[in-house]
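Good morning N.,

You mentioned wanting to compare the apo and holo forms, so I went ahead and generated the holo version with alpha-D-galactopyranose. This is what I fed in:
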Amino acid sequence: MSDTPPAVSFDPARGLAVLATPRSRYALRIGADGSPRHLYWGAPEGFTELPAPHSPADSSFESEAAADELAPQSGARFGPAGLQVQFADGVRGAQWRFTGHTASGGELRIGLADRHYPLSATLCYRVHPGSDVIERWTELTHTGGPEDGPIGVDRLDSAAWTAPRLADPRLSHLVGGWNSEFQLRRDRLPVAETVLTSRRGITSHHAGPWLALDDGTATEEHGEVWSTALAWSGSWRITVHRDPVGRTTWTGGSGHEGLRRILRPGETLDTPVFAGLYSPAGFGAASRGWHDHIRARVLPEPDRDRPVLYNSWEATGFEVDQAAQCRLADLAAGLGAELFVLDDGWFGARTGDHAGLGDWTPRPAAFPHGLRPLADHVHGLGMAFGLWVEPEMVNRDSDLYRTHPDWVLHAPTRDATELRNQLMLDLGRPEVEAWVHNTLDGLVTDNAVDWLKWDANRPFTEAGRVGDPDPDRLWTDHTRAVYRIMDRLRADHPGLRIEACAGGGGRVDLGILARTDQAWTSDNTDPVDRIGIQHGFSQLFPAQTMAAWVTDSPNPATGRATPLRFRFHVAMAGALGLGGDLTRWSAEELTEAAELVARYQQIRPLIQRGHQHRLAGPGGVTAVHHAAHDGSEHAVLAWRPTTRFGHAGAPLPLPALDGDARYRDLDTGQEYSGAALRHHGLDLRLPAGDHASRLIRLTRVPRADGGATTPGAATAPGGCS
Ligand code: GLA
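and this is what came out, ligand included:
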């Protein structure tokens, strides 16, 4: 047998499918009842003796039943069903017959047909060379004719994932809301069904569609971790079921409870990808696996530098006009900004959040000659020009609403709830999708726009389509229309970049990142709060997608005062932006800011494309270490929000360094042994006081023999050797 098994194999005699990735194996088998059953997900070494799967039908002990790859709501199954259908005669649930498979090019497709009703399903799996991520999705087809009637689909998940039995599993997940996004929780998993969900029509305020499971002992560096992420930007639901006999299975996909799709004869529903990743080496390695996957398979342009942007929102709010924006652009260009983004307030009657949304023509009082003079000015300064839009929304007080009151998501018999004084357009209607696309296409073309900040500041409410035979399809149609518009704009304007935003980080997921370059992480730009927000964000998403601004002090959201350097050092861990009122920064602050922007531009390739290692040091210090893929260059950003007792901090170990190499601090010239930095640690020499921070840049010292390191001549950090 070869050491490297084929990525995807299927043994028809045993009905056994195996997916092989560099550090994992995944196996399933067609059960006696025709349903695909889970066999194994974990380390290759563990995949040796396979127990034969039992189906509930032939097992007298429920505990012996293998979990379903997608539970079909039939038989002796009493956990959450990922597929919930009702046929025209009122019968619920599917009973499968295996109809065949295809396995090629890293993709496995398992064909199933109901034994009685005109319903077929394909369970799909895909692996990619060099990656441990397994992508899964489901296709569901009504194979009958008009005489069979429609099939109601109350739940159609992308996949169910099952971890090996763990004595006391722990669930890591992300919670939060506006101003507090991406808070990482690690909770002991109860013996119960735990539902992670968004019923908002957009992804991630409240909870995010990512989770990780471990046995309660995993750390950043050690331990087995099973994690999954859903590539969908609308409502979603993941039900985690830890059953009383020790098994944990989670089933997830788009939609939330109470929504029903109607599957008509000949129609196919397909689901978003629900991807899984097994890591044998802790949460850090799991995150790096996701970051690599997102760069290799999700982001449209992973290798392109994310520009240092300036955004005017915190500086000017709704009070925008050409003169003030040009002044800010001049100052931003002087700091080294590469992109100037004009935020909300430039259009229609938009002098506050009560009016104008939907009327995407420049406000004459603010921009008497349109946006082109500002765009030209910005381009003349050598920067790209970006524009804020919120194309899915409308204020009642707008010409758009007055002309098309029927375009909003609403049910005429219900009061339409306004949030931030706005309503949501129903992009599932083709005429609304076409209008949004044409409007944006025109804006981009007419104003030489290089960058759209695409915002979405409210969720769905009272979403309905009276008289529509399939009214709930609007939930998925809306998200797919957003995707289509973004995809078309990118295709038609190859230089255009898009930043995802939804009232801060309310719509960040692998679906939106497939057509955007970065996401606005949170409206909370307080650097102390941002350390936690960024920690959560980094569990799944790479730093190049994490927009992070330096804003004013005291911070408008929290009132906390912090030094400029600290604000920079926190924001430099992502895609750096500037968002303060530069007209009020002192000459010294502007000089320091320009130096720090230049420092960021030096380390940008490492931050945006390197491997990230999250570090927690002693004394409340946290840090991130970004390493070049070949290990030659390193940047460490360390932060201590609060000092305690005035003690000098202990050194910060850098376990990702090569113990056999030597490293030089690019700023001090000091050389260190890699072994000492790994085990003893780097003396951070943080300044005294609260909000202390440092950036340390290390380069691997070339060896005299042409290798990476020169032996000898190095001193140890902080006196160690
Ligand atoms: C949202 C965004 C902000 C800003 C405002 C403008 O809150 O997250 O960055 O663009 O809208 O109204």
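Residues 59-64, 710-721 have pLDDT under 50 and may be disordered.

Happy to go through it together on a call whenever suits you.

Best,
F.
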